[in-house]
Design a protein that fits this description.
heterodimer, A: 164 residues, mainly alpha, 82% helix, B: alpha/beta, 10 helices
């Protein structure tokens, strides 16, 4: 009975450890996907319909990270009296992205005095870049999961055998 | 909203360092301020009736002007480009921001203004009731007579025009409300901001903002079935031709023009055309006498 319980605890611990290892990767994947979608929407709103920023930033439906980013930028720039580049940068820093992805996104914050065509192009380019990063990250993630999952399970079972 | 409130609301558009200084001006100057004038590398000033007065020793920088412009457009310069390329912006609250800098010109048109060097924030004031004594004189047999308002620049034409639109559009116990269409080419009458008129124009007024008179008059004529079409500052022959077309459809007109008097109007190049098309029946001349505005109504043909 004790052995069975010990085995179960070891397997559960391994499962939790694996979850902890994969959750930052999953968060990054979700953030990259949602932001690429949110920025694609922003690019269309700027270049095609010339919708003002406050109205664009109040749009929701991109998921937790995308909506959270828009909400943080809106609150900073239009409710708390910060400048839009500052709030954009602060909101970008709070995202679970790599340093280069964050820089890519932050750089957009200083471009909002450009013409609709130029700004639309820059935002669309950033959206495509983040989408490309998402595709790569997803591929890497799948490959790592292929090896990490069995490795964790084997490690746990070996530990169980050794203990028994 | 009184003069001090309008001043303080307009001051919110200024960069933070200048806003503090502007709000410290005495109340008697706040309520007489007509404009804030900011020029790069110069101290900021307010325009009073007697002239400009500096309100801070701090020099205006280009960063301040760029930030003010960005905030006035809510970081959406691209959404305001139609008026910005003509040198101005309508700001929330019914203010008007004049912009100077380097024009970006190609194909014979200005497309943008970069390197902003001066901003002029005009505090438009709404004076309700100025049209009340004039309105009864503009009706004959219960019908509104097409009217041309005359005054020199800064004489109060737009203020009177706005109040006439509001009064005629609302109507009264002895006068039915008139369905009014305003073609506001330079956004100076309604001061529309993102499609919303910032000035009170009455319950039956439709505003076509930022559209030239020659194009806008036939548009509202077809689309809005107006009884009265109002417009600011007639300057071109095409404007008069479009007005004549509207008058032929039985629509009354209310417009304004720069001229000190009827005699000066008669010397204007557009006068022969105005006489020929016979659009207007009445003229209202605005004169300033001992600081008070006097409105004189006469027949166009008199």
């Amino acid at each position: 009975m004790l052995k069975a319980l010990g085995t179960l605890l070891l397997l559960a611990g391994t499962f939790l450890l694996r979850q902890k290892l994969t959750s930052p990767r999953k968060a990054r994947l979700a953030a990259l996907w949602e932001l690429s979608q949110a920025l694609a929407f922003l690019a269309r709103g700027i270049a095609s319909t010339r919708t003002p920023m406050p109205r664009l930033l109040q749009t929701r439906g991109f998921g937790g990270w995308g909506d959270g980013f828009f909400a943080a930028v809106y609150e900073g720039a239009f409710e708390q009296g910060k400048t839009l580049p500052d709030s954009w940068q602060a909101a970008a820093c709070a995202l679970p992205l790599s340093e280069s992805e964050r820089q890519e996104l932050s750089a957009l914050g200083g471009q909002f005095s450009e013409s609709a065509a130029e700004l639309g192009k820059k935002v669309a380019f950033c959206s495509e870049t983040l989408h490309g990063r998402w595709e790569n990250a997803q591929r890497e993630c799948k490959e790592r999961e292929k090896t990490e999952g069995p490795l964790c399970l084997c490690g746990a079972l070996l530990f169980v055998i050794l203990l028994i | 909203m009184n003069g001090i409130d309008r001043f303080e609301l307009a001051a919110q558009t200024l960069p933070p360092e200048l806003k503090r200084a502007a709000l410290q001006l005495p109340d008697h100057e706040k309520c007489r301020t007509e404009e804030f004038r900011l020029r790069v590398n110069r101290p900021p000033s307010v325009l009073l009736r007697e002239g400009e007065k500096c309100f801070s020793g701090e020099l205006v920088t280009q960063q301040m002007l760029e930030r003010m412009l960005s905030e006035a457009t809510e970081y959406s310069r691209y959404a305001s480009i139609e008026t910005l390329r003509r040198g101005f912006l309508s700001v929330r609250g019914g203010f008007r921001l004049g912009v100077c800098g380097t024009g970006v010109e190609f194909d014979g048109k200005n497309h943008d203004i970069k390197d902003v060097s001066s901003l002029c924030l005009r505090i438009l004031r709404e004076i309700c009731g100025v049209a009340e004594p004039v309105v009864p004189l503009l009706f004959e047999g219960g019908c509104f007579q097409s009217t041309l308002l005359l005054s020199p620049p800064g004489g109060g034409k737009t203020t009177l025009l706005r109040d006439l639109i509001r009064t005629l559009s609302n109507g009264s116990l002895d006068r039915p409300a008139l369905r009014t269409a305003l073609v506001d080419e330079r956004s100076e009458v309604a001061c529309s901001y993102r499609g919303e008129a910032q000035m009170e124009l009455g319950a039956h007024t439709d505003v076509l903002d930022g559209c030239s008179k020659a194009i806008g008059i036939p548009m509202v004529l077809r689309a809005m079935n107006p009884q009265l079409i109002a417009l600011d500052e007639i300057t071109a022959a095409q404007d008069v031709e479009a007005m004549a077309q509207a008058a032929n459809c039985g629509v009354a007109l209310l417009a304004s023009m720069h001229a000190r008097s009827k005699a000066e109007l008669e010397r204007k190049p557009l006068y022969p055309l105005l006489r020929e098309v016979q659009v207007f029946q009445k003229i209202v001349t605005i004169r300033l006498e001992r600081g008070e505005r006097i409105y004189e109504v006469e027949s166009f043909d008199a």
